[in-house]
């Protein structure tokens, strides 16, 4: 009896694409101020989950400390990562500033919540050395 094939839930299919894209993102508030409390982190996660859902992406993991947040996002290839980042930061900044105005004003001034920079790394795939070896093994004599 042959083993039963189990589909990988991380692999998604589209009309003309099969994909499994994950990004590890790190955002810091302006001036790397320690603005986050447990309540603000919880609300930030809720808002970012909603943004991802609307973009047909999935926020797989979220966590943070007083001065930064980490996200693991599973997203389709039709989404430009920089556009998703802009939406995540823009929408979350709007709601957090509105809902926690008194607290945030103690740490941040002006109209900005997030630093304009961010960290992004691909995640969830095989190590580069394994991919390189696999591709090298695909050579065939001509």
From TrEMBL:
Record domain Transposase IS200-like: where: 18-138
SMART domains associated with the record: Y1_Tnp
Coiled-coil blocks: none
Protein name in the entry: IS200/IS605 family transposase
Source species: Streptomyces hirsutus
Gene expressing this chain: tnpA
């Amino acid at each position: 009896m042959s083993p039963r094939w189990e589909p990988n839930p991380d692999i998604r299919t589209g009309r003309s694409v099969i994909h499994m894209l994950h990004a590890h993102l790190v955002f810091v508030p302006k001036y790397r101020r320690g603005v986050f409390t447990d309540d603000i982190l919880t609300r930030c996660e809720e808002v970012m989950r909603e943004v991802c859902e609307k973009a047909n992406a999935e926020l797989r993991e979220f966590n943070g400390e007083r001065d930064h947040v980490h996200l693991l996002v599973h997203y389709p290839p039709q989404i430009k990562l920089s556009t998703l980042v802009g939406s995540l930061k823009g929408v979350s900044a709007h709601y957090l500033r509105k809902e926690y105005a008194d607290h945030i004003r103690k740490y941040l001034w002006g109209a900005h919540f997030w630093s304009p920079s961010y960290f992004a790394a691909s995640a969830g795939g095989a190590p580069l050395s394994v991919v390189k070896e696999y591709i090298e093994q695909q050579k065939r004599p001509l």
